[in-house]
TrEMBL record:
GO MF terms, alphabetically ordered: DNA binding
InterPro entries in UniProt: Lambda_DNA-bd_dom_sf
Protein name: DNA-binding XRE family transcriptional regulator
Keywords attached to this entry: DNA-binding
Superkingdom to which the source organism belongs: Bacteria
DNA-binding is among the record's keywords: yes
Length: 72
C-alpha cells in the first residue's frame, strides 16, 4: 500500500481526519501522520505494513473483527 493508496482509502471510508482513521485502525495519530507522506519526521521512510493494508481492506468492506459469527 502506497501513501497515495492510504489517502484514497481514508477518503473512501469517509474518515475526515487522521484521528478517526487512527482510531479505526487502533494506531496512533502520529503513525497515520507518517503513513500519509510516506516518511517519518526524521526523514526515514514510513512504509505501510502489509497487516495495516489488510486491516484497511477489512474496514473498507465493513468486515467485523475476527472471530465473526459465521452464518448468523
Amino acid at each position: 500500500m502506497t501513501p497515495e493508496d492510504f489517502k484514497n482509502w481514508r477518503a473512501h471510508c469517509g474518515f475526515k481526519s487522521q484521528r478517526i482513521a487512527a482510531e479505526a485502525l487502533g494506531l496512533s495519530v502520529g503513525t497515520i501522520e507518517n503513513y500519509e507522506p510516506g516518511v517519518r519526521r526524521d526523514g526515514n521512510p514510513a512504509p505501510i505494513p502489509y497487516t495495516v493494508a489488510l486491516a484497511c481492506s477489512a474496514l473498507a468492506m465493513n468486515l467485523p473483527p475476527w472471530p465473526a459469527k459465521l452464518g448468523s
